[in-house]
Here is the input.
Amino acid sequence: MAYALVNRRKHRTNEDLILHVTEALLSFDQAAKTGSVYNMKTTCERPVPLPAGKDIDELD
Here is the structure.
C-alpha cells in the first residue's frame, strides 16, 4: 500500500475492490435466505498480477 501511494497508483486492495468483495459476501447470505439469484451492482478492475519469482520483501 505504501509503495502504491509513493508511486501514485491504486493499491491492490483499493476501495473499489473492497466494496465489490463485500457486496459478493453479503449476496451469498441474501441469495441463501431468499432462494433467488443476486445480481451484483458493483464492479472493480482486476489488480495487476504480482510479478513471479520475487521474494516477499520485494513485492509491492
